[in-house]
Structures are given as C-alpha cells and as structure tokens.
What does this fold into?
Amino acid sequence: MKTRLHFLILTIILFSASYFDVNAQGCVAVRQMGGVNPLSISGYTLPKGEFQIGTGYRYFHSFRHFVGTEEQTHRQTTGGGHDANGKELGNAVNIYSHAIDFNASYGITDRLQVSMFIPFVHNERSQVLRQTAPTVDTFRYSVYAHGLADIRFNVSYWMFDPNKASRGNLLIGLGLKTNSGSYTVKDNAPQANGTTANVMMDQAIQPGDGGVGFSIEMQGFVKMYKGLYGFANGYYLFNPRESNGSYKSAPTVVKDEEGNVLGTLTGYNLYASPDQYFVRAGFMTTVGKAKSLTLSLGGRFEGIPAYDALGGQVAYRRPGYVIAIEPGVTYSRGRHSVSLFVPFNIVRNRIQSAADIANQDLKNSVITDESEKVHVQGDAAFADYSISVNYSYRLGKLFNKKQGNLTPQKVF
It folds into this structure.
C-alpha cells in the first residue's frame, strides 16, 4: 500500500505538470496546451475502463520587455505620457492572461490511455497610443480577446507494465492539436486620428494559432531514495502551417541610411502558426504521516523557435524562451487532488525571428565594412511568474456485478 501511495502522489505531480501550460511568455505567444492525463487513484496509471476528469486555471501578467536577454527597463518609465502630477509614465505593453481548461481521460488498457483537453481563455492587452488628432495626447487603453482556445486530443502509452514497474516508468504520447480557437478576433481600438476602428488583435492574445498540429510528448519518473523521486516531462508541437493568414500590418519596406529602398519583406506581415516546446524536470517528496501532501521543485524550459521544424518559414512571430524555477505543492484525499504550481522566470530571452534576420540581411547586403553591419532584433514582453491551480477527480468503477447483485468495489 505504501508503494502504491507513493506512485499515486508522484503521478499527481506528473499529471499537474503534464498540462503543459506553456503560457508564461506574454508577447511570445505560446498557446495553453493540454497534455497527458494518466492519473489514477489506484496507482500511477489509469486502469482499463476507468475515467479521470479535471480542470485547471492559469494566470500570468507580462510587462517586462526584453531584446535577447537584456531587459528594456526604460519601457517601464518613459514614452507613455504623463500622469496628473506630471510624472512620466512607461509605454510597456501589458498582457493579462486567464485560462481555464476542462479535461477527461479514459483507460483503454492499463497501459494505454486517451485524453481530451478543452481550454478557454480571456486575454487583455494594455498598450499606449500617441494620438495626433483632434488633440495631441498619449494615453493607455486595453483591448480583449476571449473564448474557446485550441482543443487537443492525446493518446499515451506506458513503456513498461505498470503492474511490474515498481521503481519507475516512461510514458510516450502522441497528440493532435485542432484549430478550434479563433485566431482572427477583432476589438475596437482608438486610432491616432481620434477615431475608433475594429482591428485585428495581436497574436499574443488570440485564443488560437490557426494551425492543425501534432505533438510528441514524454514523461517519466524514477525512485531515487526512499520517498524521493525524480521526474521529467517534455513536449514538442509541430505546426506545419506556415501562416494562418491573419493580417498583422503592411509589409515592411527596408531602407538603407540614405532612405533608398532595399526590398520589401512580404509574407512577414501575416501571423505565423508556430511550433512550441516545453521541458520540465525536478524532484518531489511526500511530507506528513499520511503522505497526502507532496512538495516538488523543478526547472522549466519553454518557448517557441524562430523557425518551424516542418512547413514554411515566412510569417511573423515573436520567438523566445524562458527558464524558470518551479515550486509546487499537491494535496490528495480519496478521489480528489488539488495542486498549485508557481514557476518564477529567471531567464527570459527574445531571440531573433525570421523577420528580424531577413531585415538584417537586406540592410547588411549593401554594407561592405564588417564593423558597420547592423543587428536587427525585436522585443517581447515577459511575465515574472505564472500561477497554475489544478483539480482532478477519479471516476472509478464503484460497483461490480457479483452473483446478480451490485457489490461496492474498493477504491484505493
């Protein structure tokens, strides 16, 4: 029983982590993603014929702008006009993201499970407008995008028989990400000339990315020493679609220092359907006599690449990654479990995008002096931390038929 309880607690940690809530990026528009759901109250796998349901809530506020790993601290204090006391305000873009998901899993066998993940989001983007008419002014305003995000399906398989693998196991998953979330949400936004227009929202707050993708996922654990376990999980989403076709802006016209046109970056004015990735690893242990409370500490590495592994590469995105330290706590009792994870970002890096590199190459194509060549790299806003709260409930086989009568079945 003690061994099985350790497995249960470990699996709760893995289950909570496997939501792959890759959402701490802010302007680096990584979608909230569902992951493997192997949790079972009677062990670390979902037994044949049984269900698991759950829900999760995630929140972050991004406001710190980075170019590479260098923070643009002036964005917090300058360029945003002045308050009533004459104090200069910052022009940083602020994104507030709320996401709630609903998920369900079913055990086809003791080793094979299928899962479905349905997310909903409510995102706000606060930014500064420099108005030119009817009066010259600088003020902050907000726009919104909310609704159903990209639904995801997953099938996963334990590599070793859970009935025999008592000290560790490895789960392999394949997933399908749909394009159910809107990627063309518009909202009314004030314009520089004093009017209001219904415009396309930035991809950072769109509920979906417009691509149908597939993922490869893995998670595993190993018993290290007595009640101490090591765990790791990872995920890569392949989004073959180059662009979802939604309009970002007019194509960028690249000029040299004298104003001569060097070329036009066509295609980069449309939003991409980017790949994304996630890796997490750490340690966990139980505390207390009942061992119903679990503490964990892990590291996270997540983001989107500048170029997709498959498909075309000409479309706009803000690629980058974060590295975070993630403490977590989980409480389980009977059929219920509740977990809280709060990853704190320690490294934030807005890497060069394909559009940055194309722009840079055009500008440098007419510069012969290597020392005068330019570096082009955009910025992105990142959060300091994110909050993830998850709840799960086991729908076990409450009754077995025995000699024509319904007899309660023991649920561990």
